Structure formats: C-alpha cells, structure tokens
Amino acid sequence: MRKQEFLDALRKKLSGLPKLDVEERLAFYGESIDDRVEEGCTEEDAVATLGSVEEIAAEILGEIPLFKLAKERIRPKRRMRAWEIVFLSLGAPIWLSLAVAAIAVILSLYVSLWSVVVSLWSVFAALVACALSGAFVCVGLAATGSGATGLAMLAAGLVCAGLAIFLFFGCLAATKGAVWLAKKILLGMKLCFLGKEET
Amino acid sequence: MDIQLKRGLLDVAVLAAIKDGESYGYQIIKDMKPYVEMSESTLYTILKRLEAAEMLTVRTAEHGGRLRKYYCITEAGLSRLDAFKAEWGEVMLIYQFVCKEEKSNA
Q: Is the model's pTM score more than 0.95?
C-alpha cells in the first residue's frame, strides 16, 4: 500500500472523528512515512511497518471516550433548514421515545450481564455460609447429644463447601468473561460512530 | 503491566527522549526502540498530552522540501523528569527488597 492510499483509507475509517484531530493525526503518520523513506525504506515497507489501517483505527478509537464520539456524530454538518427543525420537533414524540427505548435496551443488556455475575457470586456466598453454619450446628447438636443429626449436618456442610470451591472457579471465569464482553460491547458501540460516513 | 502505570512511565520516557535537544516523531520512536517498542498512535497521544500539560512545545520547520514537527522540552518537562528520578529511587529500593525476599525463599 502506498502512502496516499494508506492515508486515504485511514481518513475514511476515522471519518466520524473531529476533522481537525484526524488531519493532525494523518499529518503525523505522513511525516513518519516520509522519514522512513528518507532513511532508504521503500514507501510500501514504510507503510507496512505502521501496521494495518484497522489496527490503527481500533487503537485510536480505544483512546477516545465514547461520549466525545457520540457528540461529534450528533453535531449537524450544516445549518438545519426551517422545515427540518419543524419536522424534528413534530416528530419528537416518536424519535425521542425510540432513542430512550434504544438506550434502555443497551442499559438493560449491560445490567443483565452483570447481574449474572452478581447472582453467581451470591450463590457462592450462600454455599460458604451453609458450610460454615453446618459445621457450627454440628458442634452444637453433638454437644446436646443428638450425634446422628449432627453428623448429617456436618455432611451437608461439607457438600456445600465442596460445591463452593467448584463454584469459585466458575465465578472467576464468569467475571472475566463479563469484563471481556463489556469491553467488546463498548468497542462495538464506538465502531458504530465510525467509518460508515463517506466523506 | 498496569495501564495507568505504563502510561505514566511512557510519558516520562518520551520526555527523556527530547531532554538533550528537540526531536521529531520518527527519531523519538527510533531512540526508544532498544528499550521500549512504541507505535505511532501511542506516541502521538503522549505528545498531545505532554503538550497540553505544557511539558513540551511544538514547532513546525521545513525539512527537505516538506514540513516536519519538532518537539522541545520545557522547564516543566525537565522538572517532571527530575521528580520522576527522585520518586523512582524509592521504588527501586522496594524492588530490590522484593527481589531479595524471592531469593531467600528459593
């Protein structure tokens, strides 16, 4: 890929970002490519050492807060005409409720993701509590003379403890998975603000 | 490594790369390469952050028929480097202590 091709592709990928910011970044990459060429590198090799356009776009995106992306995306590219404003205000009951619904769906997905994690950990906590109380009740029952019931309680407590140990690893894996998924969702949302707009 | 910690360390590393005189993007990456690999986008973000914090100044100059940006450290940048060296004297002592513990356990 030649320098201009690379810069054009990157510009297209970053079209959702503030214009001035993008041009400054592109100038930085352009300068870096020129410096490599000056050192004896071919243009293709110089571009190749920078990494793929997708990788670079993802890296840049990771550094920019979602809020800033959304703000830039929502900002109109030109002054709105009078009829557009009228339509927008008349349509407010429809598009506003749709927007609120969309945000609510995203929020509920997020909440349900974490509630799975929370409920797993609470089962773990309950099992630990059962195991401990089983041991205590067993001692209490043994002291009052009902040894057989005490033994049964101890057995139940041990089963709970065993389950808790197994569940602990499951909980850890679920938490890690949830963090990973939450990151993916955030990146996906950021990608929605990028690249689809032709310049 | 912890992301916040690494970010702070890379900021200082870039300041160190320009402490003996102004430099430009590709040169900074080349100078740091034996110690730490840094991508263009990472460097760009760091330079922007340091500029906003007034730890460096930027000037554009002509070079071989094109424009090139040069980065120059400020007094604030130099004192940040000094502060880093002072702070990390302590950290290195802790590091030595941690490594000593490991050896005595082995």
A: no
